[in-house]
Amino acid sequence: MNLSITPLKEWGLLNKDIFLSAGPCSAESEEQLFETARGLTNRGVSFMRAGIWKPRTHPGTFEGVGINGLKWLVQVRERFNLPIGIEVANPYHVEACLKNNVDVVWIGARTTPNPFAVQDIADALKGTEVPVFVKNPISPDLELWLGAIERLYNAGLRKIGVIHRGFSTSRKVLYRYAPNWKIPIELKRQLPNIPILCDPSHICGKPELIFSIAQEALDLLYDGLMIEVHVNPAKALSDSGQQITPEQFHSLIDRLTLKRELSSSKEFQARIKELRLEVDNIDEHLITLLGKRMEIVRKMGDLKRKNNISTLQPQRWKEIIASRLAAGTEQHLSDEFIFQLFQAIHEEAIQHQEADMKQGFKRK
Length: 364
Ligand code: PEP
Ligand code: MN
Known about the structure:
Helix content: 40-55%
Largest sheet: 8 strands, parallel, barrel
Structural class: alpha/beta
Bound molecules: phosphoenolpyruvate, manganese (II) ion
Strand order of the largest sheet: 1-2-3-4-5-6-7-8
């Protein structure tokens, strides 16, 4: 897709080395917002975030202070000269934000996957220049993420960015939401110009993991970060376990290292070229070996067919996974990686055997 998205530098918001959004998960009181804003001054924050309508997974939890919070945020902007950003989930939210000249809006992870809601938001924003960020859908579905971006684009919006906030998963992972980096990387491949922020707070779910995910995002050339900052995280009414104090935010930003894509150093260029050649060579071998493996798999398929034996051999598959995981561990390869790799290889093998089987039946 070739969308002509406005570069982040032209959005009219502060953007020194990295684009930074910081602020509480939820607006709770005027005082909480003022104290947080005070703690965020002089840090190059592009906009202060705070949710006033909170889409909670379960009912009966804090669902935001509503429209009152907007008044407080407008005062924060005036007093601290800090642009403000709010999550919107319907046209009523958008209208309230437009009326108060909110600087940035974002669509949350539970709204992005709903085409009706996104279309309503896009229609309500039509004709404005408000920057909009689209958080990834909570489930790992790239197409729904892309579809939401397209709806905003088709409504004439050009200041569109995305926020990677992690994905729900049924597998147990270290993080609250699995980072699943391959999805935002693929989104960037398809939409190279779209600004991308990482929200390590929601990915991690706990403060001590935030630095490494934030640094990883910068290593992957993300444009910036959205981080939940609260004056008193322990007392926060939502996402209390993952928010950090303004002081922790400052020290986190100080520790981050910015990366660039290219180097003009001749030495670097020569060495990286050598190493890339080695990798190209190994990849060629890998693919040749996979081709050979598949030839053998097809012979096995023939044998199974002649003996009326099932394509799927659950016991054998169990043994493959166990032995490959063990071999992977010896090579310092993660279980997750080996599991996904062999799942893909196994699926391809089954497809080959099934295709041959159908051909075989035709030949009969
Ligand atoms: C939030 O930003 O506080 C929030 C609710 O995020 P998400 O939509 O990513 O869950
Ligand atoms: Mn939150």
